[in-house]
Amino acid sequence: MIRTGLDRLLERGEALAGRRWALLAHAASVSADLVPAHLALERAGAGRPALLLAPEHGYWGVEQDMVAAAGGADPWTGTPVVSLYGCDAASLRPAPETFAGLDLLLVDLQDVGARYYTYAATAAWAAEAAATAGCAVWVLDRPNPLGGVEVEGNLRDEGLESFVGAFAVPVRHGLTLGELLTREARRRGWEEALEVWTVTGWRRETTWPETGRPWIAPSPNLPSVGAVQLYPGLCLVEATELSEGRGTTRPFRLVGAPGLDPLALTRELAGRRLPGVAFLPTYFRPQYQKHQGEVCGGVELVVTDAARLRPYRLGVELLTGLKRAAGDRFAWRRQPYEFVAEFPAIDLLAGSPALRTALERDQEPAEWIATWPADEEAFRAARREWLLYPEPAA
Question: What gap in Å lies between CA 382 and CA 13, rounded to an integer?
């Protein structure tokens, strides 16, 4: 049976007795019996947190991507809420005075195992600020829904650090949040402040359905395990003017734009013979965000074999196929992306200008893809230092 770090702490509510603690969490931070973390801890005898910290989308996940989330107070307990996603880059890191009078930060966030998913950056930056202020940091770990075995993609280039590229790791890194923060604590010198409450009953090869736990959306556009499986690749579409399905009931499973021919796009993508996925020609109409109210031609991506799926490679091939099929209708995002204006969004997400450069030259990015295995192998060797859960026997 899977017991998350939160579940384990709830069995020892007295561990928080006499502590003044803050909690960084969100709507997916729930106990095994589906009670929100701050309420479950209070019921277990831990008292109320002095402060709640909220990542992107807000504590309850009500805001869309790149929309500032307000702070305020928790409507059930009155506990103050500090938003770590406001109107500028400075809002992403808590101010030193945030932790005045506190001695402990609890971090309970459901990550999705992709480099650009922002909760890991929020957790690392908040944890470092808390440790600097003299607080202990307890990470209440949760399973990586993509599993802990597979590693996929290039390492992020130096100089492309951002909210969606806070870590020099492959896009699919196979680490839990506790392992990622262990890495950062050792790199940045606050390891003594960190304690990870590990997940019991979880193995690196465990798939999400095998955990026996329901999927609770950690952010508004990842409502299903299927969307999470595709996210490491489909997120790249955010860097274009094509729709990634936001504003529909199938975000990160649809892609398209007005004027695209679904059949031509399907033929282009099917011809790439990508494992674990099929392409269904379709039309859709986003109700908000890109192409709001317009009928888009495109494809629905259907996961046929999650074990064989290489989602990041899929995303790169998808952009390449879209560039060919869309012609002049293909365009990169021009607006600032996650508060960064000096680099294109695609470079921030890919962690390199190589993908953009190849597609702008109408070339296949095969040469760049061929560099991934070396990065993957180097990372597999390095990450053994931070693993909290053993690798499966060869």
Answer: 35
* The predicted structure's pLDDT at residue 17: 87
- Written as one string, the DSSP assignment of 152-194 is BSPPPPTT--STT--SSS-SB----HHHHHHHHHHHHT-GGGE
Which neighbouring-strand residues pair with 366? none
Any idea which of 63-72, 77-86, 113-122, 127-136 has the lowest mean pLDDT? 63-72
Element of type H or E holding 312: helix 311-326
In eight-state DSSP terms, residue 65 is T
What Cα–Cα distance (Å) separates residue 213 from each residue in 31, 34, 99, 252? Answer: 10, 10, 33, 22
CB within 8 Å of 306: residues ≥ 6 apart: 207, 229, 276
Q: How many CA atoms lie within 13 A of 105 on its CB side?
A: 28
Give the CA-trace dihedral at 216, 221, 225, 229, to 10 degrees: -140
Element containing residue 303 per DSSP (H, E): strand 296-303
Model-level pTM? 0.96
Concatenated DSSP letters of 73-139:
E-TTT--EEEES--SSGGGGS--GGGGTT--EEEEE----SBTT-THHHHHHHHHHHHHHTT-EEEE
Instruction: Give ∠ CA 275-296-324 in degrees, rounded to 5.
Output: 55
Please report, for residues 195, 267, 309, 359, the alpha-carbon distance to residue 322 in angstroms, rounded to integers and kept in the order given.
45, 11, 19, 10
* 60-109 confidence digits (pLDDT tens): 999 999 898 999 999 999 999 999 999 999 999 998 889 999 999 999 99
